[in-house]
Design a protein that fits this description.
- The chain is α/β, with parallel strands linked by helices and 635 residues long.
- The protein folds into five domains: 3-175, no CATH class; 196-294 and 510-559, D-Maltodextrin-Binding Protein, domain 2 (3-Layer(aba) Sandwich); 298-309 and 414-504, Periplasmic binding protein-like II (D-Maltodextrin-Binding Protein, domain 2), CATH 3.40.190.10; 320-400, Helix Hairpins (Orthogonal Bundle), CATH 1.10.287; 564-634.
- The protein has helices at 18-21, 41-54, 67-89, 113-121, 232-244, 259-267, 282-285, 322-343, 348-351, 355-370, 382-412, 422-426, 442-451, 464-472, 483-493, 520-532, 535-544, 565-634; strands at 3-4, 25-29, 124-126, 131-133, 146-155, 158-168, 172-175, 201-206, 214-219, 225-230, 247-252, 273-274, 289-290, 295-304, 435-438, 459-461, 478-482, 497-509, 512-513.
- A five-stranded mixed beta sheet has the order 1-2-5-6-7, with no helix packed on it. Strands 16-15-17-14-18 form a five-stranded mixed beta sheet, sandwiched between helices.
- The longest helix is centred in the last third of the chain and has 70 residues, at 565-634.
- The chain is elongated.
- It starts with a strand and ends with a helix.
- The relative contact order is 0.09.
- Keywords: Glycoprotein, Ion channel, Ion transport, Ligand-gated ion channel, Membrane, Receptor, Transmembrane, Transmembrane helix, Transport.
- Residues 215-546 form the Ionotropic glutamate receptor C-terminal domain.
- It is found in: Membrane.
- InterPro entries: Glu/Gly-bd (IPR019594), Ionotropic_Glu_rcpt (IPR015683), Iontro_rcpt_C (IPR001320), Peripla_BP_I (IPR028082).
Length: 635
């Protein structure tokens, strides 16, 4: 529905445009008689008679006088009556109207002008255009405003203005009983929706922002390079254009423009709309109206990824304090001595051993019980069993405490961020001058309102890229970033940055528009349809939900081997010591065996030598006996 405030000549339009003009309303001020309100007919007739008498050539007839002529007459008549009363109360009867003697006409003024204005404000009469009364607080007449609404309708000669409605302060809007009000579409049914954006040219303001509005260079087949806008916002504009049919005139705001400055640009008429990652805030809503949500937003804290924590060599000992470890060792030694004393005589296995061997066996027994092993040695006395039971219970509690505390410490010792969420910022865990905020953003407004009490003690930055770079350069420790941009940049671009905690200051991104913008309802309906159809979710998935950075998350149930490397080293040392003892024992046994072999060989050699000597002696003796026998025989 179109409403104009001035009439125009309909004959200038081609007949093909007549259907588009049908139903248009022309709203204009009028005289009281048109609205069936009383007028001063005596004064009007006297004025017409004088006009016709002195200037008959300019008198158009009583029914052809323009309404604004009636307004001019009542204005002149008000001045005449006010001057008449003004002169009646002044003391200078010769010249009641006294003006200053300035040479320039616009510098001249009426003396006692306040008195004249008071007279006008207190006057009330019935004029030729209706009731006349003024007030110092308004430029309009009091209870004397009258309007007429003319409706464009078809007529036998084409189209024409037809009086359909009239208005007065006393009765309000009234329909003309002799005519019908025709609405757009040449129907008697009033429209149920607002103005449509079909065919309307809109100046759209955009601002460069990663993934929302990106600028890329595109080279065609001829080698010509042009810039192109891509991202969540350009895709959203394309969807809205398809649904609403408006003509977009996209203009990119300067890089140094703030988000608050974009809102001011809408107020000042630089842009019809601004489509950007612009958060709805109370201060901005005072200036403009906002559409339905185009993006559900919250603020996230971006920090540097913490390096892996260096685990101490003997960190497996950390669950228990050193004095507790010493107490445990002392308890084991003391318990071993007690068991050895009470079991030395009663236990036959200990009785057969020497004192040192028995004590070592008891220590092994105690240590085996402490480690949960089944040791063959069993106490025989009641005292020994009581001591063993007490040590078993002590062992149960110590191992349970050790296991729980070790798991807790290893979990906590994993790489932890410097902060866990917004509560750490509120508690002052990060110095205020190490907090980076985007100037002119909703995040800055939240910080000043909720965290710093209006104190601008933050680290000011002028683009999101500066926030990320400042984090990498260790100029700041925390950056406040909107959720979409933060998730994309930490998942795809800056793999050494991460998000701490959950979102806060939950809000929405929306499109700002001037207050009373007639197309607001059409835009809101289109945005709701896009949300219901899932198009907005698809845009979010397209531009924000993909990840190129490796996943550095580690299950809390897993324990890094470095945390227990000291324990394994102890185990290795014990193993090496055992191998050494075993090898030493084997070497000792080998030496003993070699010596024994040497002795056996030596013994065999000796026996062989003795046998040879005996054989030689026997042979020599036999030869002697044979010789003796021969000699005796000869004799």
């Amino acid at each position: 529905l179109w409403i104009t405030s001035a009439s125009f000549d309909l004959s200038n339009f081609n007949q093909t445009y007549y259907p588009n003009l049908i139903g248009l309303l022309n709203l204009e001020p009028t005289v009281a008689s048109v609205a069936n309100a009383p007028i001063n007919a005596v004064l009007l007739n006297a004025a017409f008679d004088l006009w016709n008498q002195y200037e008959p050539e300019t008198f158009p007839g009583r029914n052809n006088v323009n309404d604004y002529a009636f307004f001019a007459f009542d204005a002149a008549w008000t001045l005449v009556q006010s001057l008449q009363k003004f002169c009646s109360i002044t003391s200078n009867t010769s010249s009641c109207i006294s003006l200053s003697n300035a040479t320039y006409c616009f510098d001249r003024f009426l003396f006692n002008s306040n008195t004249l204005f008071d007279i006008i404000n207190n006057m009330e009469f019935l004029g030729v255009s209706g009731h006349i009364q003024f007030s110092a607080n308004t430029t309009d007449r009091i209870n004397g405003s009258y309007y007429v609404a003319n409706n464009i309708q078809y007529s036998p000669t084409g189209i024409n203005f037809v009086q359909a409605l009239s208005y007065s302060d006393s009765t309000g809007w009234q329909r003309n009983t002799s005519t019908q009000l025709i609405w757009p579409g040449n129907t008697l049914a009033p429209p149920t929706s607002g103005a449509k954006l079909q065919g309307v040219k809109l100046i759209l303001g955009l601002i460069q922002s990663t993934q929302y509005t990106n600028i890329i260079n595109v080279t065609d087949a001829l080698g010509n390079t042009t810039t192109q806008l891509v991202g969540y916002v350009p895709d959203l504009i394309n969807l809205l254009q398809t649904k609403l049919g408006f003509i977009p005139d996209i203009r990119l705001a300067p890089s140094n423009h703030t988000y608050n400055g974009l809102v001011d640009s809408v107020v000042n008429g630089v842009y019809d709309l601004v489509v950007a990652d612009l958060t709805v805030t109370a201060s901005r809503r005072k200036k403009v109206e906002f559409s339905n949500s185009i993006f559900d937003n919250s603020v996230r804290l971006v920090i540097r990824t913490q390096p892996d924590i260096q685990v101490a060599l003997f960190s497996f000992l950390n669950p228990l304090s050193w004095d507790l470890w010493l107490l445990i060792i002392g308890t084991l030694i003391f318990g071993s001595i007690l068991i050895c004393i009470v079991e030395r005589v009663a236990n036959e296995r200990l009785r057969e051993k020497s004192h040192s061997a028995a004590y070592l066996m008891i220590i092994w027994y105690t240590f085996g019980n402490f480690m949960g092993r089944d040791v063959e040695l069993q106490p025989k006395t009641i005292a020994g069993r009581l001591i063993s039971s007490a040590m078993f219970f002590l062992t149960l509690v110590i191992i349970a405490s050790y296991t729980a505390n070790l798991a807790s410490q290893l979990t906590i010792s994993k790489s932890q961020p410097i902060i866990s969420g917004i509560d750490d910022i509120k508690n002052g865990k990060v110095p205020s001058n190490r907090i980076g905020l985007l100037v002119g953003s909703a995040s800055l407004e939240y910080y000043l309102t909720e965290l710093s009490g209006g104190n601008p003690n933050y680290y000011p930055l002028y683009s999101r890229d500066q926030i990320y770079q400042s984090l990498l350069d260790d100029k700041i420790d925390v950056g406040f970033i909107d959720t979409g941009n933060a998730e994309y940049m930490t998942n795809d671009v800056y793999c050494n940055l991460t998000i701490a905690g959950s979102g806060f200051n939950v809000g929405i991104f929306a499109i700002p528009m001037r207050k009373g913008w007639i197309y607001g309802n059409d835009l809101d309906v289109a945005l709701l349809l896009l949300r219901e159809s899932g198009d907005l979710n698809n845009l979010y998935a397209k531009w924000f939900q993909y990840k190129n950075c490796p996943d550095n998350s580690v299950s809390t149930a897993a324990i890094d081997s470095r945390a227990l490397i000291g324990l394994f080293m102890v185990f290795g040392i014990v193993c090496m010591l055992s191998i050494f003892i075993f090898a030493w024992g084997k070497l000792h046994m080998t030496k003993k065996l070699t010596g024994r072999i040497y002795r056996i060989i030596d013994s065999l050699n000796k026996k062989c030598h003795s046998a040879r000597e005996d054989a030689k002696k026997i042979s020599h003796d036999s030869e002697i006996r044979e010789l003796e026998a021969v000699n005796i025989g000869n004799f």
